[in-house]
Amino acid sequence: MSVVEEIIVPFKMPRAQMAQGTEFKSVWLATSLHLLRERGLFARYLENLPKQHHDAIVHSIAGVWLPAQLCFEHYKACDALGVPVTEQVALGKAAMQRLQKTIFSMGFRAAREAGVTPFTVLKQLPASWDREWRGGGVSITKVGPKDARIEIAGFIGSPIPYCRNGLRGVTMALCELVCTKAYAQEIRELCTETTLGFRVAWA
Question: pTM of this prediction?
Fold first, then answer.
């Protein structure tokens, strides 16, 4: 029997009309830099980052709005590190695990015990995006009993493989707040210069 897709949270407007993100909260950047230092990648990262962006990125403080272009420059420098895809995904998971108490402060541990599923968690993604980004947006579609499609539009980091792989890890870690194991794969046909999509499943 074919599965009927159900849009859980639609885009706020048609995808083609979604405005490109212009600013983002620095908390994600600060967390990413911390993880690069922790894994001994920071010196090489600085070599890849154009010098004119060093001060704005390295000395940024958590909780402020930064230009979206800095997000692009940061992840482009991370991509140039050439770390394996599995490590890129792992870094995304680690970032989510560090930030879950501040960005997703919804008592997910208690929710897991109460039987809440990843669908409940994923429904929070669009609202979380709006808190962390000015412009762009997220759509969530149920495609199976334990499967969902996540689409992001108006995102400057979309063309960068490191960024896309890191977001796979973020998605997996987010779902694993309330499930045993999650998997995420990129949907190639949804990935453009400003959009991307993932299929996430869990057990």
Answer: 0.90
